[in-house]
Design a protein that fits this description.
By secondary structure, the chain is α/β, with parallel strands linked by helices. The chain is about 30% helix and about 20% strand. The strands form 6 sheets. Strands 1, 2, 5, 6, 7, 8 and 17 form a 7-stranded mixed beta sheet that branches. It has a 5-stranded mixed beta sheet with strand order 18-16-10-21-22, with helices on one face. The protein is globular, with a radius of gyration of 22 Å. The structure holds flavin-adenine dinucleotide and succinic acid (SIN).
């Protein structure tokens, strides 16, 4: 059926106002808030939990930007386009890749400390061009730098405040947000009902990151539940490329463990680590000219095949990093080394159990490089947005730079003269529904991993859609965070399943067993749009 469920009705108990509300405090949200704040807009940043949240602080590999004399913007664009498998917008790629060195320079000016020495190499890159910090703790340094700058700019941040739905006026313009304050226990767990209110705003910026939590195993943290994508869908925005979910090949595997799993950066393969099977044979040997450093979609699919066909376990393979050496592991890969030690593995002497895990949403809310979506007043930047840069598969380490660049562009635009001139009138959230029972979350993520993972096929995707239709509705009673997240995850799963069913070919990180080849006629985006009243997920454009 592919119908979205709406959040249950809830009474409001407070109101507020701002020029710009930014939802999310990752690289994209902080960059947008900072630029608009420096232009003296009244900016409000909402963040579901604490300020250190989202995927940004966890980023390991680093930031892709041309720095060596033998490299060029043309070469970086070409690698981005190859990874994007026919769906990258080359003009967009040129803009982002061309602006990446400047984004790094700006961070340095704000006090970021990046590592000295030659840049790193990751999958799909034909030159060394990955700048990192603290070895494999690059995102933490980017986030720290942005937080300090935000504090200096005195931008207001509301922690423990979750964006629920957009308020839309009669002309279809977003004029604010419905949001809920989250109460927490002494241990930090959300407790009780949300205290819901409205914020009237001239611009609402979605910077909510990806959707990894819709799968059983993911590198994404707990707060990354696809809220912005679900909110935009309910507001009637066009969404594109949502079928292209990138699975990172090397996510630490632990028997029986679900949810967030540590990443093993691709930079480790750049330093010589090799994916091996139960016999110690290199899985990527002879499978691609770049072997272990082939684009991620290629590596993840080869791993799944070997896990399905080999004589080893069907659950995982191994990453042999022993040849990297103990001192280099300690110096350049402290995050990975610590994650391995935490599960009793010494990566200097034994292989690390790994399997592909959900990592990055290549698609999202259709947006320009300045963050404009198809709904006036609603903007999207960072991982929640689909600008055309990543196409069907993101090139490693292109996303932090994209988030920094698009966030700043949008913030500067919102800070400029004409962008947010009018005072917004009244608006309303979408008609209420019954939401999704939080207990449905585990069956939902299991079904997504089984049917919309690295390899997909029609029958599985159809059965996933039926499963989603059957998931239980939320009980009566005040709205809580668990119900909001379950309802949003249901929306995300519905959208991914719909787009994956429509795209009857294999391309980038969307691989269908029943149609294993790319089809030239399908070198176009699938665009989904939901009418605010009907709730039916419509396919606005497809090949
Ligand atoms: P995020 O950083 O994910 O931030 C989202 C924010 O939105 C968070 O503050 C969250 O709490 C908040 N939020 C979500 N929903 C709501 C809501 N409803 N209300 C209020 N707040 C909300 N990319 C690279 O380029 N290089 C790398 O080396 C790299 N390594 C990675 C390693 C890991 C482990 C992961 C998970 C990702 C990695 N990526 C990397 C991808 C990259 O980190 C992300 O794409 C990028 O950080 C996304 O930034 P963002 O600002 O869009 O979202
Ligand atoms: C990694 O370090 O392997 C992740 C980089 C990325 O996702 O861009």
């Amino acid at each position: 059926m592919s119908r979205l469920r709406h959040l249950p009705a809830t009474a409001t108990s407070w109101t507020s106002e701002a020029d710009v509300v930014v939802v999310g405090a990752g690289a994209a949200g902080l960059s947008a808030a900072l630029a608009a704040g420096l232009a003296r807009r009244r900016v409000l940043v909402l963040v579901k939990g604490g300020l250190v949240s989202g995927s940004t602080p966890l980023a390991q590999g680093g930031l892709a930007a041309v720095s060596l004399a033998e490299d060029s913007v043309d070469a970086h664009v070409a690698d981005t386009v190859v990874a994007g498998a026919g769906l990258t917008n080359e003009t967009v790629a040129r803009e982002v890749v061309g602006a990446a060195p400047d984004a790094l320079r700006r961070l340095r000016e704000w006090g970021a400390h990046f590592d000295d020495g030659p840049p790193g190499l990751e999958g799909g890159h034909s030159f060394r061009r990955i700048t990192h910090a603290g070895g494999d703790a690059s995102g933490a340094e980017v986030h720290r730098t942005l937080r300090v700058a935000l504090e200096r700019a005195r931008v207001e941040v509301w922690r423990d405040t979750v964006a629920l739905d957009a308020l839309v006026d009669d002309d279809g313009r977003v004029v604010g947000l419905l949001a809920g304050r989250v109460a927490r226990s002494a241990e930090g767990a959300p407790v009780g009902a949300l205290e819901v209110g409205t914020i009237r705003a001239r611009a609402v910026v979605l910077a909510t990151g990806g959707l990894g939590q819709v799968y059983d195993t993911t590198t994404n943290p707990f707060d990354v539940t696809g809220d912005g994508l679900a909110l935009a869908a309910r507001a009637g925005a066009a969404l594109t490329h949502v079928e292209f979910v990138q699975f990172h090949p090397t996510v630490v595997y632990q028997t029986g463990r679900r949810g967030v799993a540590p990443l093993v950066t691709e930079a480790l393969r750049g330093a010589g680590a090799v994916i091996v099977d139960v016999h110690g044979d290199a899985v990527m040997a002879g499978r691609h000219p770049r072997a272990d450093l082939a684009p991620r979609d290629v590596v993840a699919v080869e791993m799944r095949r070997r896990m399905g066909e080999g004589d080893g376990p069907s659950t995982h393979l191994w990453l042999d990093a022993t040849r990297v050496g103990a001192s280099r592991l300690a110096r350049e890969f402290p995050t990975v080394s610590a994650a391995c030690r935490a599960i009793g593995i010494d990566p200097a002497t034994e292989p690390i159990p790994v399997a592909p895990g959900a990592h990055y949403a290549c698609g999202g809310v259709r947006a320009t490089l300045d963050g404009a979506t198809t709904v006036p007043g609603l903007y999207a930047v960072g991982e929640v947005a689909a600008t055309g840069l990543h196409g069907a598969n993101r090139l490693a380490s292109n996303s932090l730079t994209e988030a920094l660049i698009t966030g700043r562009r949008l913030g500067e635009w919102l800070g400029s003269g004409d962008a947010v001139a009018e005072r917004p009138g009244p608006g309303a959230p979408p008609a209420p529904g019954r939401g999704v029972d939080p207990r449905a979350r585990a069956p939902l993520t299991r079904a997504m991993s089984a049917h919309a993972g690295v390899l997909r096929e029609r029958t599985g995707l159809e059965s996933l859609s039926e499963d989603l239709d059957r998931l239980g509705v939320a009980g009566p009673g005040p709205l809580d965070l668990a119900t909001v997240e379950a309802t949003n995850l249901h929306a995300v799963a519905t959208l991914v399943a719909r787009a994956a069913l429509v795209r009857e070919e294999s391309r980038g990180c969307h691989r269908r067993r029943d149609c294993p080849e790319p089809r030239a006629a399908w070198e176009r985006p699938v665009v989904l749009r939901t009418s605010r009243d009907a709730r039916e997920v419509g396919v606005e454009a497809s090949p």
